[in-house]
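Predict the structure of CHAT domain-containing protein.
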Amino acid sequence: MWTVLQQEGVEHLASHAVADMREPLRSQVNLASGPLPASALLEISPVDLLSLGLVNLACCTTNVSGVDYDEALSLATTFLAIGARTVIGSLWWVPSGRATAHLMYMFYRHLDDGLPAAEALRQAQLWMLDPGRVLPDDMPDTLRAMPPAAEFSEEQVECWAGFTPLGR
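Done. Here is the predicted structure for CHAT domain-containing protein.
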C-alpha cells in the first residue's frame, strides 16, 4: 500500500510529507501513487496491520501537529493509532542528502544490532555528532562515496536532529 521498504514489520517511507497545521487530518505523505492523508490512514483497521512494528517516516514534518482541537494528531501519531508499535517522525522539513542518508543507515545498523528503535536512533544521532566518526566497514559503497563531513554536527544538524521516536 504505502511501502517503500518492508522487512519483518518495518515500513520505511522516504518521500515528501506535508503537515496541515489547521486541519491535521489533511496532513499527508506524498507517494508515487498519490497522496496518503492522515484521514485515509485512520480508516485502516489495526487488525490488517498486525505485523506493523516500526514505521520510519523519513519525510518532512511527519511528527508535527497542528493548532487545531487535537494538538496530538500528526502523521506519526496516526500510524501509532492504526497499530504501529514504534514510529520515527520528523519535527521539521528535512532536506534529502548525505547527512540524512548516513543517519538512516546508522539507525538501521543499530537496529540490526538488536537495539530498540529509540536507542538505535539515539546512537545514530550521537554518531552524527561525533567529529571523529568512522565509517563502518559494512557501509555500502554508495554511502562510502558520500563521506560524512565534519559539518554534520554543526551546519547540517537540520538534516538529522529532527527525527524523534514515538511509541515503544
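The first strand starts at residue 5 and ends at 7.
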